[in-house]
Amino acid sequence: MLHPSGGSPRAWRSASLVATAAALLALTTACGQDKGEQSPNGQNVGNQAPAKDNGYGADDGYGSDDGYGSDSEAAGKGAKAKSAGQLAVWDSKKLGKVVTDSAGFTLYRFDKDTAQPPKSACAGACLKTWPAVPADGAEVAPGVDASLLGEVATADGTKQLTIDGWPMYRYAQDTKPGDAKGQGVGGTWHAAAPDGKKAAPTAAGAAPVDPAGLSTRKDPGLGEIVVDKNGMTVYRFTKDSAWPMKSACTGACLKKWPVVAPVAKNDTRGILEKGFIVFNRPDGEKQQTINCWPLYTFAGDKKPGDVNGQGVGGTWYAASPQGKPVGAAK
């Protein structure tokens, strides 16, 4: 007896089983590889009082009485030429979109510099207060045109990072991620926007700059972790599962741990693409996953660089670029 499709029942059943097995294998490959792994702070941003002298930022023209912008120890730390790494964007309510380095430190531009052609007017003692950001190792922030990044040779031959031609600096008095104490110093130093312009709140009715996506930054204590479009830390919940894909954070939990909204693959950098799919939650929200593990941010993180959610309850951990919970017991 032939099956209505024209083949024998045995042949039809064999073909059906093969197709079902192939579909199951594909889904398992996407969402089942990691199932065995279950197991406070910063200053508000504000303009500093402009200095009265030559525009470098203090009575002696360089940032403070000792010429460094802070005590000697902080100045020494600020003066080290650390690579910016993966740039990120911080959405500050007071300053607008601000570009930061991979550790969450604000980058600045100087009004006495020029962008066309790129040229730095900060030299000598000025660089002790405003260390030049090295061009080597810098990567563009997600959603920003890569052609904006460049470099310029400083007086001592160092290659300094530029954004749209403007040389980039850090500030010695910024001692932790999220600080922007250099904003407005001397009336000539300004936090830089992702396009190299001066950071400024978005005007009413104007389209905001949106560096949508997920990227990574190197945290001093945790290593390489995932951050969202605003540079905020992304977390994993060890009570979730990837296969079957399921979130154990519901109801009131979501007020403290908001889900990461869907992100297009072409708006990411350094993130594992396997299992980078959207989870349709039972509550109707759509949640981005890495390796099929649901992702969250933490309401207790107030600025880029915060990792206040790390280790909370022994179940919440910053997510690695592969979607694993950094620091969780195996």
Average pLDDT across residues? 78
- List segments where confidence is low: pLDDT < 50 over at least 5 consecutive residues: 1-5, 14-29, 32-79, 204-212
Whole-number radius of gyration?
A: 24 Å
User: The biggest beta sheet, please?
Assistant: 3 strands, antiparallel
Distance between the termini: 56 Å
- SSE string, helix = H, strand = E? HHEEEEEHEEEEEEEEEHEEEE
How many helices in DSSP terms?
A: 4
Shape: elongated
Give the strand line-up of the largest sheet: 6-7-8
Structural class: alpha+beta
Number of strands: 18
Fraction in helix: 10-25%
User: How much of the polypeptide forms β-strand, as a percent range?
Assistant: 15-25%
Give descriptors for this structure:
alpha+beta, 3-stranded antiparallel sheet, 4 helices, 18 strands
3D structure, described in words:
- The protein is α+β, with helices and mostly antiparallel strands.
- It has helices spanning 9-31, 72-79, 126-129, 253-256; strands at residues 88-92, 96-100, 108-110, 114-115, 118-119, 149-153, 159-163, 166-167, 189-191, 215-219, 223-227, 235-237, 241-242, 245-246, 278-280, 286-290, 293-294, 316-318.
- Mean pLDDT is 78; it is low at 1-5, 14-29, 32-79 and 204-212.
Task: List strands and helices in order, with pairings.
Layout: H1 9-31, H2 72-79, E1 88-92, E2 96-100, E3 108-110, E4 114-115, E5 118-119, H3 126-129, E6 149-153, E7 159-163, E8 166-167, E9 189-191, E10 215-219, E11 223-227, E12 235-237, E13 241-242, E14 245-246, H4 253-256, E15 278-280, E16 286-290, E17 293-294, E18 316-318
Antiparallel strand pairs: 1-2, 3-9, 4-5, 6-7, 7-8, 10-11, 12-18, 13-14, 15-16, 16-17
